[in-house]
Amino acid sequence: PAMTADDVSRAIEEALASFGSMVRRVGWRHRLSDADVDELVQDVRIRLWRARAGSEQIRTVGASYVYRTAVSAALDLLRRRRAH
After folding, report:
1. How far apart are CA 4 and CA 80, in angstroms?
2. CA–CA separation, 60 vs 29, rounded Å?
3. How far apart are alpha carbons 25 and 70 in whole angstroms?
4. Which of 51, 28, 52 is nearest to 41 (CA)?
5. CA distance 50 to 31
6. Cβ pair 31, 14 in contact under 8 A
7. CB of 56 within 8 A of CB of 3?
């Protein structure tokens, strides 16, 4: 059976519970402020939703995927800050 939106949301929250500290470390390593690190976590949540929402793979998302997503999101955040 296909995953419901609630299933996907729960799986993403479980991934962030497991890897949230790693996502935060990525933000701090890029010298983001605490507010920007919070934005980074939210951006990673959205990116996971977009990339994996229609797939059972969200339940097995790995640390390396979340790490790469966090680095990419952090760099995009820095680029947006510089553009302003």
Report:
1. 33
2. 26
3. 10
4. 28
5. 26
6. no
7. yes
Scanning the structure block, which residue is given the tokens 């890897």?
19
Which regions in the chain score pLDDT beneath 50? none
Q: What is the pLDDT of residue 63?
A: 92
Angle at 12 between CA 19 and CA 83, to 5 degrees: 75
Which of 29, 27, 31, 22 shows the shortest CA–CA distance to 66? Answer: 22
**Whole-model pTM?**
0.88
CA 62 to chain centre: 12
Enumerate residues 6+ apart whose C-beta is below 8 A from 47. 69, 72, 73
Per-residue confidence (pLDDT) for residue 48, from 0 to 100: 92
